[in-house]
Amino acid sequence: MSSSRKQLKGIVVESKMDKTAVVEISRRFSHPVYKKYIIKSKKYYAHDPNNSSKAGDEVVIVESRPRSKMKKWFLKEISKKG
């Protein structure tokens, strides 16, 4: 895959579906008015062709062509087993 695609690091929350992993990405930022740090998280559905990821694994996902209604990311590698 080309290097111009977005890459995100996150933790697998669920991997019960066939060839699909639900990855939660957390980001930390300062609130524009109150200057307090806030953590927001978002879940992404990623294509996992070998069903290799399990819940708790730290993974890297890459943007790809849409594979279904919700899957637009591809599981590139498992950084750390959970």
List its traits.
82 residues; 5-stranded mixed β-barrel; mainly beta; globular; 56% strand
Please, could you describe this protein's structure?
By secondary structure, the protein is mainly beta. The protein contains no helices and five strands. Strands 1-2-3-5-4 form a five-stranded mixed beta barrel. β1 and β2 (20-30) form a beta hairpin. The radius of gyration is 14 Å and the shape is globular. The chain starts with 6 loop residues before the first strand and ends with a strand. The mean pLDDT is 95.
Count of β-strands: 5
In round numbers, the mean pLDDT is 95
Radius of gyration (Å):
14 Å
Helix residue percentage: under 10%
Count of helices?
0
Question: What sort of overall outline do the alpha carbons produce when their principal axes are compared?
Answer: globular
SSE string, helices as H and strands as E? EEEEE
Which class best fits the helix and strand makeup?
Answer: mainly beta
Low-confidence stretches: none
Largest sheet: 5 strands, mixed, barrel
Distance N to C terminus: 26 Å
What is the structure about, briefly put?
The protein is mainly beta. It has no helices and five strands.
Give the SSE map.
Layout: E1 7-14, E2 20-30, E3 37-47, E4 58-63, E5 71-80
Parallel strand pairs: 3-5
Antiparallel strand pairs: 1-2, 1-4, 2-3, 4-5
